[in-house]
Amino acid sequence: MTSQQDYKDRQFLAVIGDEDSVTGLLLAGIGHVTAPPDAQKNFLVVDNKTDNAAIESAFERFTTERKDIGIVLINQHIADRIRHRVDTYTAAFPTILEIPSKDHPYDPEKDSVLRRVRRLFGE
Amino acid sequence: MAETTVDLDTTIDTLLERYLTLLDEYTRLRARLNGLQSGIYQNLARANFSAQRGVRYGQDHYDDRMQAARRVQITQSSPSAGHHVIFDMIKVTADESEENDDKNNTKKEDQQEEQDEKKSAAAATTKDDNNHDGSGKPSPPPKKRNNHDPLRWFGLLSPQPLRLAQAQAVQAVEEIIPRLASLSAAMADVELQVRRARKKRSKAEKVDHQKKLQQQEGHLHGNGGQEEVLPAH
């Protein structure tokens, strides 16, 4: 059961994605950098040089450490790189949504909600 | 009073029906999100293609002092709709001080950009504007709108494809993403209820089965007694 305390301060949408995905979402005005000296960003731009540890660390920061994130968007192909971490995430907040990217179309097989559906219907 | 297996079957069917309705909406929204994101990527590619040599609309231009203009708001659903949370996206305006500074410096640009953005948003989708007006909250005055406009990171004269990409991103962020998150929470709530109901049903079935066995045994004993009595006659 969730209490209001769990979510009342969760006001930001965080993104882990490739440059175009992050740019697109930041254009919508969701980007936020906290006040210095922390200056924590609510997004991570992932490219070929970004290692999995950096992605995992951002995922950990957005889902566990920060209490001001309500939804985490992550490109599906990036989620694949830390799949064990994403699939074992069970907390109610923040909600994780996997989104497609320019080069990787959305695969319903990997969608966590649709996987839950299959589990419910006994597959 | 314990529910019968028939009652529980009906409950589970009702829950599954609701679940499938939610799933249908989730799937449709997913398709819409895919469409919008494809549009964003195409428009970004167009903007980059027509940009000056060496210019790329990307992270090199992000403002390190950016403040979120669209924020998540989480509320509890009404008891009749279940016990899940609802995600919304609300638009926040800049602080008064910042707003005044900005207004003095760039009032003209704001108005011009406002007009341009409205045009591009209307071209991209007519729904976008409706959403601003139909969100249930008073729409902020036009001058406030662009105080945190990320388009400015890329210069004053942003190309049309970039504006289109922004309009599509706004639609995705305001209409689709919070609804998908809410649906995920609502579906999780129904899943929990279905599992509970199935557990209850399996218990009820066991009880029914035991009762039947007892009745059969009782019946057999009853018959057995008669059979024993009959030969004595």
TrEMBL record, chain A:
Keyword Membrane recorded: yes
One term under GO cellular component: fungal-type vacuole membrane
Gene Ontology molecular-function annotations: proton-transporting ATPase activity, rotational mechanism
InterPro entries xref list: ATPase_V1-cplx_f_g_su, ATPase_V1-cplx_fsu_euk, ATPase_V1_fsu_sf
Top-rank taxon: Eukaryota
Subcellular localization: Vacuole membrane
Keyword Phosphoprotein annotated: no
Matches recorded under Gene3D superfamilies: ATPase, V1 complex, subunit F
Keyword list, A-Z: Hydrogen ion transport, Ion transport, Membrane, Transport, Vacuole
SUPFAM superfamilies, A to Z: AtpF-like (SSF159468)
Residue ranges of the TM segments: none
Function: Subunit of the V1 complex of vacuolar(H+)-ATPase (V-ATPase), a multisubunit enzyme composed of a peripheral complex (V1) that hydrolyzes ATP and a membrane integral complex (V0) that translocates protons. V-ATPase is responsible for acidifying and maintaining the pH of intracellular compartments.
Family listed: Belongs to the V-ATPase F subunit family.
Subunit description: V-ATPase is a heteromultimeric enzyme made up of two complexes: the ATP-hydrolytic V1 complex and the proton translocation V0 complex.
Name under which the protein is recorded: V-type proton ATPase subunit F
Lineage of origin: Eukaryota, Fungi, Dikarya, Ascomycota, Pezizomycotina
UniProtKB/TrEMBL annotation, chain B:
InterPro entries: Vma22/CCDC115
Protein name per its UniProtKB record: Vacuolar ATPase assembly protein VMA22
Organism lineage string: Eukaryota, Fungi, Dikarya, Ascomycota, Pezizomycotina
Ranges where the record places region Disordered: 95-154, 198-233
Biological process, per Gene Ontology: vacuolar proton-transporting V-type ATPase complex assembly
Species the sequence originates in: Apodospora peruviana
Coiled coil: none
GO cellular component terms, A-Z: Vma12-Vma22 assembly complex
Residue spans of biased composition, Basic and acidic residues class: 102-135
GO molecular function, one term: unfolded protein binding
The organism's place on the tree of life at top rank: Eukaryota
